């Protein structure tokens, strides 16, 4: 059971913002600077805006403290759309970090599937489930 792998489809709460810098001549696009523009948010602490992932700073800290491998953390610029402001007047967002997936072998706790979905180890999923990921679809990896 401990070697089981899981594919996650995190909540999508927005899109790449105008300040994102990327190379779209490759697939998936190579992102150099990540700006996430929230359009809504159901409260999950793991989010996706293809081809990027975000985690709350609390979740980021837990992933590091657990010693998980296959990812790095970086800065992400966060903003909200007019729709977000209308839906959630005065709502404050927690601090988020850019979860960069770097794993490229079966030992990595985080890696991408051939179709660029997020795949995690059982060990990583155990940590993720300690946080709010209620809107993420979780399936066993093939």
Task: Describe this structure as you would to a colleague.
The chain is of the alpha+beta class and 142 residues long. It has one domain (5-140). 15% of the residues lie in helices and 37% in strands. It is built from three helices and 13 strands. It has helices at 57-65, 82-87, 122-128; strands at residues 5-9, 14-16, 21-23, 30-33, 35-38, 46-49, 52-56, 71-74, 77-80, 96-101, 110-112, 118-121, 137-140. The protein is globular, with a radius of gyration of 15 Å. The model has no long low-confidence stretch (mean pLDDT 95).
List the helices and strands and how they pair.
Blueprint: E1 5-9, E2 14-16, E3 21-23, E4 30-33, E5 35-38, E6 46-49, E7 52-56, H1 57-65, E8 71-74, E9 77-80, H2 82-87, E10 96-101, E11 110-112, E12 118-121, H3 122-128, E13 137-140
Parallel strand pairs: 5-9
Antiparallel strand pairs: 1-12, 1-13, 2-5, 3-4, 6-7, 7-10, 8-10, 11-12
Task: Sum up the structure in keywords.
single chain
Quick gist of this model?
By secondary structure, the protein is an alpha+beta fold. It has helices spanning 57-65, 82-87, 122-128; strands at residues 5-9, 14-16, 21-23, 30-33, 35-38, 46-49, 52-56, 71-74, 77-80, 96-101, 110-112, 118-121, 137-140. A four-stranded antiparallel beta sheet has the order 11-12-1-13. The protein has a four-stranded antiparallel beta sheet with strand order 6-7-10-8. A three-stranded mixed beta sheet has the order 2-5-9.
